[in-house]
Amino acid sequence: MIQYFKFHADIFPPVPARPIYHKPGKGKGWPEECPPIRAANAFGFDLLANFDLDLRYKNGRWSLRDPITLDSDFAYAPDDSSPGVPLTQDYAWFWQKGQKLPHVISDNVFEVIKHQVKVSTFLYLQSSADEVLMLTEIPNQRKPWRAITALIETDWYPASYPWHCVVELDPKAKRITIDRGEPLARILPLKRAAYTAKPMSAKTFSDFFDRGQAWLQTHGRPHESGTATNTLDITHTYAKQQKISTFSVK
Question: DSSP secondary structure string, 81-102?
């Protein structure tokens, strides 16, 4: 289970991903109609942009119009004898040339990563034991920006700040806008485990292949056009037999 705490009550919570994000046009055969693609689109939770972002690229550097700093709606005190005060968190910020904290960035490295902006989700995230979060881009989207993939050890790392995602910007775009409420990144809950891969034996492959042929004969049907004599139509059959994971926010 993923648990979250919002930096401020008005912040978006994680939302279940959707099988389709853009309605395809007329005709048949759109990728959005493919059951495995729809299942990938709907796997995980989306983290939404909490404010509008307007990013401009000019003279070799990015700038952010109308920067936002948010105060938490809870107070923090380092000890019981100190008065509590709200925390503050920037919504978006860039790497700095010559920066030393929270880690050093060499000038040649800065030239490579200067097209990245860090965007806060304003969410504290925690997961169950041996459950980690893969933070990545929204699947099958074509945009001039993308969230960089990272694996977050949320089952043991007690971050004292809301998690952010690093967004790579395409400088050819010159101007990039990300609207409030737009899916910004995807989080996928994964189990920490020892995963292995090995080749099939000849016997295992024979059984596998025979099972596939039997499935086709049972569930496939000749295409209505009658032109494909050696190929069976499995339209709708795969989708009906899928065992899709479910995602909900309580």
Answer: TSPPEEEEEESEEE--TT--SS
Whole-model pTM: value is 0.91
The dihedrals phi and psi of 158, each to the nearest 5 degrees, come to: -90, 75
pLDDT in tens, 44-100: 999 999 999 999 999 999 999 999 999 999 999 988 889 999 999 999 999 999 999
CA 111 to chain centre: 26
Backbone φ and ψ of 81, nearest 5°: -90, -5
Q: In the chain, how many H helices and how many E strands?
A: 4, 17
List of domains in the chain: 2-191 (2.70.40.10), 202-241 (no CATH)
Give which of 91, 86, 94 is closest to 11, Cα–Cα.
Answer: 91
